[in-house]
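[User]
Protein folding is very new to me. Any chance you could explain this protein sequence and its structure tokens? I have pasted everything here:
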Amino acid sequence: MNFNLFLNNLYFILFTHDSPVSLFFAFIFGALIGSFLNVCAYRVPAGRSIVSPSSSCFSCGEIIKWYFNIPILGYIFLKGKCHDCGSSFSCRYAVVEFITACLSCLLFYNLGGFSLSYFYYFFFFCFLIVVFLIDLDRWLILDSIIYPACIFGFLLSPFISQRIDCKDLFYLFSLPVQNFPNWTYILIDSLLGGFLGFIIFYGVAFYGLLVFKQDAMGGGDIKFAISIGLFLGIEKSIYAFVLSFFIGVICLIPFMIINKKSGKEPIPFGTFMAIASMLSFLFSGFIRKFIFVFY
């Protein structure tokens, strides 16, 4: 048997983006990472190690055996209950694992397999999921999560081929374009996205203090917006920030009416920003076409 042919076939099966086997591996990888994200969302705000001890039941404290800790399947086998004491587990853990697995497959297929772009944006999505979960539970956006993500998103951005070339923005506004390497313009795009996030959300916070004499936006939300801008660049960031306010309004108005709230209560706005950022990345092409229909 031709060894080179065997390697080529193996590569196609495992790493080609449109191979069912490779998509299955991407799903399994995403589910495993999703299980880890659940651990991070629970332990990081509590200041606990994300490595040890092993996962255990919240009620009886018994360590969950490894074969019951398999992502998604473990929850199904246990029927959502502890094997030792019978207390119920939240279905959120399996849902997060499943969603992360599906996002992994989606990125794997759209970005051409296991590439640097795949890992860059999969890291970004995982970051969004962790922020979403922590902000939903504790109304916190932690610096210990934001700062490493900002560094990662900015420093690796020039190596990601799917990043929008900032030259397009220069041409759009009739600005002079020098004969610099493309990565310099991608870095500019990343910085502009982060700066845009700071300006918009700091502006909302300042306006709230000036007019309503209360915090309209938390410091964590501002830092989160900066990190989103560094990952997405200026165009997708615009879509993400506009969508976040739009989603927030849609979700909060019925809640305020039903619960008779005044609208002055704090809200976990980071959850809306996380959802909007995912939608912006996944559907930026559709959003762009939709905008130009009315342009």
About this structure: The mean pLDDT is 83. The two ends are 59 Å apart (CA to CA). The first helix runs from residue 3 to 15. Residues 115-295 form one domain.
